[in-house]
Specification:
Blueprint: H1 2-5, H2 9-12, H3 23-35, H4 50-67
């Protein structure tokens, strides 16, 4: 994450929500925002393999959010 944003995680976590975790932890974290009324959620991937991370998110995380 620090390489992506060019700033320490500690600094970035003060201005936006950050989570790097397995799908089973990401889904409820995202669901909390939706349950709180968020209508738009922007997901950014911090690693260099953006396509791979997007595919994993669509396959492993989003179905869990949808089911929650």
């Amino acid at each position: 994450m620090e390489g992506y944003y060019g700033a320490p995680n500690e600094s970035m976590s003060r201005i936006q929500s950050l989570l790097a975790a397995p799908a089973g932890r990401c889904a409820p974290w995202l669901q909390d925002f939706i349950s709180a009324g968020a209508q738009t959620v922007v997901i950014r991937f911090g690693g260099p393999d953006q396509t791979g991370q997007l595919e994993r998110c669509a396959r492993d995380v989003l179905p869990l959010v949808h089911d929650a």
